[in-house]
Amino acid sequence: MTPPHADHGSGPDLTDGVVSLRRRPSEEHAHLFAVTSEGSEVGAVCVVVHPDAVGRLTWELDPGFTGRGLATRAVGLLVDYAFRGLRLARVEAYVPPGNDRAMRVATRSGLLREGLVRGHGVVEESREDRVLFARLATDPPLSKPESFRALLNSFLPRKRAIAQMLVRDHDDRVLLCNLTYKQDWDLPGGVVEVHESPQLAVARELEEELALDIKAGGLLLTDWLPSWSGWDDALCLVFDGGVHDASIVDRVVAQPREIRSAEFCTPEQVRERCADFTARRIESALANVGGAGPSYTESGR
């Protein structure tokens, strides 16, 4: 990540005792610094100020000085200067997804990972993705435990959770939904929202999509779903919806954007109408109603 070139300035402007930033002459709205350590110039950092009080951070360290934490210290000084000296509200850095070293520098400097910006960078007339890191002036100091937790939370893996409900009738049939966005049928349920209980989420989904008020019982199955057809992998949690009279389907008011219809299906119909991995998941969940089946499967196995 290379800042614009400029001639050397004079005198250390910022230091933490190990790394110093020496100001360089630069273009308007760009604050450029040479990074020095133990009397040697080891790289450069820059913050470009935008009219909305947002600063764009860039940095580069000479190859012979990487791996010593110097870039992290230099970017940390630059961030502090952006907030205290320039009174910026936010600083940002855009890092190529494959540049693990730069991503470590960003996070260790206190920048939170905010997501992938597709096609943001241009390299040799080709658009490339960038990972966006940012920090706000109002974020807690890095010395605070909540700041460290927020930092970890921003870049640790996140896995999608899906909650489904196994609803049966007195003839041991299973309630299935005919979905609008795929050909095969599936159990009622849906994606768990951020900060939402999976057990409450599945009851909410049945209310929203079928107008059925059924509380979720105990967890019958955790099924890992591998990446498939454009979807990232996910965890599917199947909750026990209990046994009900088959007439509850007469009360169904299907959400037309997602549900065509819903009906109770025999085991044979489940295998006929569902994708093979869905049928396996249903069979595993049914087996665990009495506690005889697996509590964890992968793609239903």
From TrEMBL:
Keywords: Hydrolase, Magnesium. InterPro entries: Acyl_CoA_acyltransferase, GNAT_dom, NUDIX_hydrolase-like_dom_sf, NUDIX_hydrolase_dom. Its cofactor is Mg(2+). Residues 1-130 form the N-acetyltransferase domain. Residues 157-287 form the Nudix hydrolase domain. The keyword Glycosyltransferase does not apply. One of its GO terms (molecular function) is hydrolase activity. Gene3D superfamilies: 3.40.630.30, Nucleoside Triphosphate Pyrophosphohydrolase. Pfam families: Acetyltransf_3 (PF13302), NUDIX (PF00293). This is NUDIX hydrolase. It comes from Nocardioides jiangsuensis. The lineage of its organism: Bacteria, Bacillati, Actinomycetota, Actinomycetes, Propionibacteriales.
